[in-house]
Amino acid sequence: MLKYGKRPARSDARDALYATFRAKLAAAGKLPATPPPPWGHGNDFEGEAWLMLGNGPDETIPPEWTAAREGCSDCAWACPAHIIMELASNTGRPVPPFNGKVVVEQYAEYSGYDPTTGANDNGSDLREVLKWWQTKGIRDADGTIHKIGPFVALEPKNLEHLLECAHLFEFVMTGVEVPASAQHEFNEGKPWSVVPEAKIEGGHCVPFMGEPSASELAFVTWARRTLATNDFYTTYNDEAYAVITAEQFKAVTGKDYEGYDEAQLEEYLGLVGTGS
Hints:
The chain is an alpha+beta fold. The chain contains 9 helices and 9 strands. It is 32% helix and 18% strand. Helix 3 packs across helix 4. The longest helix has 17 residues, at 75-91.
């Protein structure tokens, strides 16, 4: 069974809010202009090369971890790993090795999850995972630690803000409340959509990868790049965060995929007054 794993969204007064300070970016002439679709990422890992990373049945997990091999609620840990993989691909660096075992290990360290019995499989708070990513870092299978700098909280369900922040910061870590219809659509290769009266099954964390068309958005989950309608996002999104990390900048040019350098992004973060 495919799993979820995002705990309910919660507000925090300490967050830097993109919506609050967006006017400052506009006044400074630094509001990012998003290009027309198609644009974005997520096409570098074909088929299921994105890897399940423990968020569903996963043969890369040790056989003795009986429960974890069937899938656990570690989506908030698979999401950063997927972002790190794509950033490496975009910047021409070797893609860090990730597998289900190393991702589940970190979820277990955070939550107390028992990969053998399945006890304490209670999911993760996205803000806590972001703080972990900042301080302890996300570990790949070779033991390399990957960290981020500040993060900015987006206004939930705001599509314009999602597109702007994805263009400015490369990726957005999004949380959605997933209706039962979504797994059926995923299994049939269809975009996630709003299905009337579909019941919410759980919270899920997925990285936003771009805008392949004017009516669809791209995400990565359950080992694949998947699409969702704009209405799906504006209906079910309940939290989202943009981050800055040195890993998004190319070693040769010092710029990211969209052409921004680290000094520019730090200036933007200064404008939004981030303390996160």
